[in-house]
Specification:
Length: about 300
Amino acid sequence: MKTFKIYQIDAFTKEKFSGNPAGVVVNADGLNATQMQQIARELNNSETAFLFSPDDSSCDGIIRYFTPQSEVPICGHATISAMYAKAIEDNLDSCILRFKTQVGILPFEIIKEKEDYQVIMTQGKFELSPTFDTITSQNILSALGLDYSDKDERCPIQIASTGHSKVMIGIKSREKLNNLNPDYNSLIQLSKEINCNGYFVFTFDSNDSEVLTYGRMFAPAIGINEDPVTGNANGPLGGYLIQNKIIDCKDNVYEFKGKQGEKIGRLGVVNVSVTIEDDLPSLITIKGDATVVFTTEIQI
């Protein structure tokens, strides 16, 4: 029997019971995939992160992510949560840790300030798929409960990814966003057809000058009907906005804040930074706050 320490962290917020909750097992050495899946199912967060010791000198550790149903390659809010938990557990000063993920070795920056931490996650390589054909686009809109007239005409419906892909759907109205009632079975079927599990619906309809977008993210195919605040949706959104020239950026870095979770009472903020080279996104990072809700232990 070994005792494993678990943190429950709310990411992209400083208020408990808001933002996006994630479980973090900070000493996961010895756990196998079946046990990690069981722990993730028991905690029943959208994702649980597992931190392992490094397997070679190329990294500071290994991180794996599980939804209640399956392993996923990368996760934004669970990374913020995991690095926040590690910083507390190891009483870290400001530093950069390199962790091995299924999308490569990524640097995660821990910023210590006033005895608390923020985390900056460098995301994987940005990729943008071609715009969907009219029929597929209409099927996606219909499954989300949207009409074509709801769509923001500046925003093509296409898949964006920094390691865990999302379909980007820009719409005109925040009221419409908050009233969405998707057909989850239809989204599950569509996910099989388009090979993408996440649907990120966003709008520029913001009454806060500091907040560019509000969004909601649905991924029923991997057991997440709605994810409260999604780093791996808001990050790729930044690349999508730059590559499609939806945002006019004269500098080589574009930064914005995306809010998510308003409808389900778990509001959080993702700070996105996109480095631009030759008018294309070359590096995407997200920054977030976090707070500990509780810690516990499990013996296996």
